[in-house]
Design brief:
184 residues; alpha/beta; Purple Acid Phosphatase, chain A, domain 2; 4-stranded mixed beta sheet; 8 strands; 23% helix; globular; Calcineurin-like_PHP; Metallophosphoesterase_sf; Metallophosphoesterase; hydrolase activity
Length: 184
């Protein structure tokens, strides 16, 4: 990122997305994902949505290994469209319980070597029609209070917001949803 300060040079960022934990028990696969991510020794880890298909009660066992993901500066989570087919707010709460910071139309900074980088996250567009108050993508809310001089990484499950992100001066948008580049 051109605006990234020298103190953040070499920042290691790992992304998990579209895990779609569902009726087939993939707990062992989840454990392997965590092992691989932890071997990366990332400073920041993000889950970019579509965590699971179904309720927390039905999928908690498969998601539980994600509580063991290690990151030096932060672990961030955003919703995907599949969270809104069930219990989106329950998933946000559950990931917080597992030690992840839900970026529900908000941002959090990370700092290293005297320099700062903001990670902002927005809800999936499906949230706007979910009937859940306050759900749906709100980029202005996610960026509220961020100085124009601070570099920003945006987590947005669907790449639909890329034009809006560019217009807002986002330095990098990370999305999932398209299932490209899957690693099994």
């Amino acid at each position: 990122l051109p605006r990234l300060g020298a103190g953040l040079d070499g920042l290691r960022f790992a992304i998990i997305t579209d895990t779609h934990f569902g009726p087939l028990n993939r707990t062992k696969w989840s454990e392997k994902v965590v092992e691989v991510v932890n071997e990366l020794d990332a400073d920041v880890v993000a889950h970019a949505g579509d965590l699971a298909d179904g309720s927390v009660a039905k999928r908690a066992q498969q998601v539980a290994p994600l509580g063991k993901v290690r990151a030096k500066l932060g672990k961030f989570y955003i919703t995907g469209n599949h969270e809104y087919f069930g219990e989106a707010q329950a998933w946000l709460d559950h990931m917080r319980d597992l030690g992840w910071e839900p970026l529900h139309n908000r941002h959090l900074p990370v700092s290293q070597g005297g320099d700062k980088l903001v990670f902002a996250g927005i809800d999936d567009p499906t949230g706007a029609a979910s009937g859940l108050p306050g759900h749906g993508p709100d980029l202005p809310a996610a960026l509220d209070g961020v100085a124009a001089s601070t570099p920003v990484v945006l987590l947005a499950h669907q790449p639909k917001q890329v034009k809006q992100a560019a217009e807002a001066g986002i330095d990098l948008q990370i999305s999932g949803h398209t299932h490209g580049g899957q690693i099994w």
